[in-house]
Specification:
alpha/beta; five-stranded mixed β-sheet; three-stranded antiparallel β-sheet; 11 helices; 41% helix
């Protein structure tokens, strides 16, 4: 028994005629007759008696239609609430380290749904690493975006496992030096750690969880003579320009958001200061089916790296 068959039966009872019901349903009369016959055979009841004057509802048919009408009314209420034009707001949240590509994927996801076709309550938070993990673990966000490296992955993976989370790989990259276009080193083809020692190295502060394994920047295990902690991307960009500061990152930058005044130059390793690989990815709760919106956001992340 299907909802379509229930609708067919209710329409026949309402119209009092197979032909009129078929016209109202925009189907052929033989198709309607066949569907009702299959329904009656499945339920082992006779819903309608066919006569020369039309159709008549049987006693057991009246009982069936009363229950069917109740079921179909509930279905219509659900459709009205949760359907494409429903009144229920769709909720989605993502927490991420300070990545412009994560914001770009969010923008594309929101645009995909449009502003008029869906009621929604979405959220994106650029935040500290431990907050990314906590937000997803506690259900405040559906997806988290962060990175793993040889240096931090044992620590991060233990945190993820403890919180019932799993990491999904997106993209591999090595360290890049991110700085203002007029920085004294901006025209270098690659930059060594020794060349950077005269300039302030900037990183995002991690609050009370100031553990090197939670750092958003790659090569945090190196020693830097001058360091500045910041809280947001805009401040970091300002300090790059005002103080010739720099940061070490993936180099995956979306210039439409960060601007064309900032560039990424490859980090040049040496024997004492090797480069490192970043595995950019996203985290979700284990054994949980992602919502359609979450899947669309993840697809936008994947599309970015294509």
């Amino acid at each position: 028994m299907t909802l379509q068959q229930i609708l067919y039966a209710l329409t026949i009872a309402s119209e009092g005629s197979m032909n009129k019901a078929a016209e109202k349903l925009y189907i052929s009369q033989p198709t309607l007759t066949s569907s009702i016959k299959q329904l009656e055979e499945e339920l082992n009841i006779t819903i309608f008696n066919r006569t020369n004057k039309g159709i008549a509802v049987t006693a057991e048919g009246k009982d069936f239609l009363a229950n069917a009408r109740s079921i179909y009314t509930q279905y219509e209420m659900l459709e009205e609430k949760y359907g494409p034009k429903g009144s229920v707001k769709r909720n989605f949240g993502v927490s991420c380290q300070h990545y412009s590509f994560a914001t770009k994927a969010f923008v594309n996801m929101v645009k995909k749904y449009g502003y008029d076709s869906l009621n929604f309550s979405f959220a994106i938070k650029e935040t500290k690493t431990h907050n990314v993990i906590d937000d997803v673990a506690e259900g405040r966000s559906d997806v988290g975006v962060l990175y793993l490296s040889n240096y931090n992955q044992k620590y991060i993976k233990k945190l993820l496992d403890t919180n019932g989370l799993e990491f999904h790989f997106l993209y591999n990259c090595t360290a890049q030096v991110y700085l203002y276009k007029n920085h004294p080193l901006a025209k270098e083809k690659s930059i060594t750690l020794k060349q950077l020692q005269d300039y302030p190295c900037m990183s995002f502060e991690q609050g009370s969880q100031e553990v090197s394994y939670l750092a958003e920047e790659i090569l945090v295990e190196n020693t830097y003579a001058r360091t500045i902690k910041v809280n947001d991307r805009a401040t970091m960009l300002n300090l790059m320009q005002g103080l010739n500061g720099y940061t070490l990152c993936s180099g995956v930058i979306y210039n439409e958001f960060n601007g064309d005044d900032y560039i990424a130059v490859p980090y040049q390793a040496d024997d004492d200061n090797p480069n490192a690989e970043m595995q950019l990815g996203y985290i979700t709760r284990k054994n949980t089916i992602n919502s359609k919106i979450a899947e669309d956001y993840i697809e936008e992340l994947k599309n970015y790296f294509k």
